[in-house]
Amino acid sequence: MPDARPTAMVIAIDGPAASGKGTLSRRLADRLHFAHLDTGSLYRAVGLAVLRAGGNPSDAAQATEAAYALHPETTPLVLADPALRADEVASAASQVAIVPAVREALLAFQRDFAAYPPGNARGAVLDGRDIGTIVCPDADAKLFVTASVEARAERRLKELRERGVPVIYAAVLEDMRERDARDSQRAVAPLKPAADAFLLDTSSMNADQALDAAISFICSKTGLSDHCA
Ligand SMILES: Nc1ncnc2c1ncn2[C@@H]1O[C@H](COP(=O)(O)OP(=O)(O)O)[C@@H](O)[C@H]1O
Ligand SMILES: Nc1ccn([C@@H]2O[C@H](COP(=O)(O)OP(=O)(O)O)[C@@H](O)[C@H]2O)c(=O)n1
Known about the structure:
Blueprint: E1 9-14, H1 21-32, E2 35-38, H2 40-52, H3 60-68, H4 75-78, H5 87-96, H6 100-115, E3 123-128, H7 131-135, E4 141-146, H8 149-162, H9 169-185, E5 198-201, H10 207-222
Helix pairs in contact: 1-10, 2-3, 2-5, 3-6, 8-9
Protein name: Cytidylate kinase
Catalytic activity: CMP + ATP = CDP + ADP; dCMP + ATP = dCDP + ADP
Subcellular location: Cytoplasm
């Protein structure tokens, strides 16, 4: 039986790779004491499972089988796997994400998280590509976080180098462009801002400035006041 908690508040954060949506979502969830779900990790988990099985992430049947093999009880453990952060896994994620049956398989988990955030939290922040458009179209506040493709490639390059991964700027930029194209042009749930999303371009903002801008929008939109100062 669903529990009798009051309806949870939902903040939807979408945007392209390395726009800063994950950093912003984590910090928002901290500030508001909300639960956070990085939905990209779900697609990465499906991509990684196919790669580990020696399969092809573009094969719809293999991707669908891997998506249905993710179970809510074990998913939190799977999402903590550091292997999810590898660049080839990001690429595999964007290939499995094209498959409508994969998206369908992951939908219930995301909607349940939004409706019944873990830890008895009074709200949830979900970040991804289609949260404001498909997963939670009735979210209380929606943000679409962007930055120029060059700024995003610089950020991802720095992040990968800090983790000791040997990469060059041109390859990261090329990968980002490829993934942007695949995510924006796919037929199902393409990356695009919801009509009622607040557009936040972080190209020349640091993470603190992005958080301040987001908090001020969310507070004015939702009437939340206790964490807004
Ligand atoms: N506003 C910002 N300015 C500069 N770097 C940022 C900003 N927001 C996030 N970052 C850094 O950029 C990288 C990508 O950010 P992340 O939040 O993982 O993006 P996304 O979730 O959109 O892929 C991380 O290394 C993060 O620390
Ligand atoms: N809600 C979501 C989240 C991610 N994805 C897919 O999963 C891939 C990896 O997402 P991510 O958010 O982990 O990627 P980064 O922004 O961290 O690079 C994306 O390129 C999308 O193809 C999606 O289709 N829908």
